[in-house]
Amino acid sequence: MKIQKLLRLTNTLALAAFASAGMAITPDARANDWSNVGVGWWNDAANWIGGVPDNTGGWAIGNIGNSGTAIITNTVPHVSEAWAGNGGVAGTIIVTNGGTLPVDNWLVVGRTGGGGNTPLSTLIVAGTGIVNKTGDGFIVGDGTFCNGQVFVKDNGHVNISGGWNGIGNGNGGEGWLTLQDNAVYTLVAQDWNIGDYGTGRGHAYIKDNATLNVSRFFVGKNENSIGALWQSGGAIVGTGNNANEWTIGGDNDTSANAFGFYSLSGGTLTCLYNF
Questions:
Q1: Strand partners, 264
Q2: Is 92 exposed, middle or buried (0-12, 13-18, 19+ CB in 10 A)?
Q3: What is the pLDDT, as a whole number, of residue 8?
Q4: Which residues, 6+ apart, have CB-to-CB distance to 197 below 8 Å?
Q5: C-alpha span between 168 and 139 (Å, rounded)
């Protein structure tokens, strides 16, 4: 896990090579940069430098890194990576009624990029919007003092079937996750980490009738990270083939300084595994 996280600080080509065990570099790796500094539709090629990102022909990245906002209201082409905020500039992605964003590898909200210090960046999944994420990590608040926030509300769904989810990562990264209304957030692959590693700071809020289906659960996981989870409603449910470890405050004896906090004032917690 830590090796993967260190590798993501390298360029996309190196990541692709690692993923294929050094056999080959992914061909035609590229980032399509969002050019609209205001609000626009993801599926409108005029809002992109290089057109709408689509990994049919190779590794493709949708980079919203110019303070603009991309709105998704239909099923857009698969991308290898999607970034909301990158390299010191904020960005926003909104997936709403009728919208589906399929991400096959990295999904990052508040990405380090060149130099870090990315201001608060945002992913909103609202209405009946859907995010489907496979492979690699879903990072909210990257290292090097980047900030990211995710809101899943109304009847929005986030489905993470591959990789892990880190909220607040690395050196100074800080992330927020809010699940509300009838939102459903499902991670059956690897870890759900609030305050993942380094000095990362993570915050999560679950309320109303929202549901978190999670496999492995860590609040304040590694090193000097801090994580806090407030649940005032809804449900946290243990599920998935890899579910075997739920921890608040430190994953093992090398993480004695990690701190975790969990407040359950409403709703339910169902854990069938080690806690």
A1: 231
A2: buried
A3: 43
A4: 2, 5, 166, 169, 170, 221, 222, 223, 225
A5: 8
Q: What is the DSSP letter of 196?
A: -
Q: Are strands 30-34 and 48-49 parallel, antiparallel or unpaired?
A: antiparallel
Instruction: Give the Cα separation of 151 and 132 in Å (integer).
Output: 15
CA–CA distance, 225 with 194 (Å, rounded to integer): 9
Distance CA 135, CA 237 (A): 22
4 with 34: CB under 8 angstroms? no
Low-confidence ranges of the chain (pLDDT < 70): 1-30, 241-244
Give pLDDT, residue 254. Answer: 75
Both structure tokens of 168 = 């607040």
Dihedral of CA 157/163/166/171: which sign?
A: negative
**Closest to 248 in 3D by CA, of 225, 266, 272:** 225
Half-sphere exposure of 247 (CA within 13 A, CB side): 21
Specify the 3-state DSSP secondary structure of 23.
coil
Q: Are 87 and 111 in contact (CB under 8 A)?
A: yes
The pLDDT assigned to 12 comes to: 38
Task: Give, for 2, the enclosing helix (H) or strand (E).
Answer: helix 2-7
- How far is it, in rounded angstroms, from Cα 225 to Cα 258? 5
63 vs 11: CA distance, rounded Å: 14
pLDDT tens digit sequence for 215-273: 889 999 999 999 999 999 999 999 876 666 889 999 877 788 999 999 999 999 998 77
Other Cβ atoms within 10 Å of 175 Cβ, number: 32
* Structure token pair of residue 52: 């709408």
CB atoms within 10 A of CB 10: 11
**Cβ atoms of residues 191 and 201 within 8 Å:** no
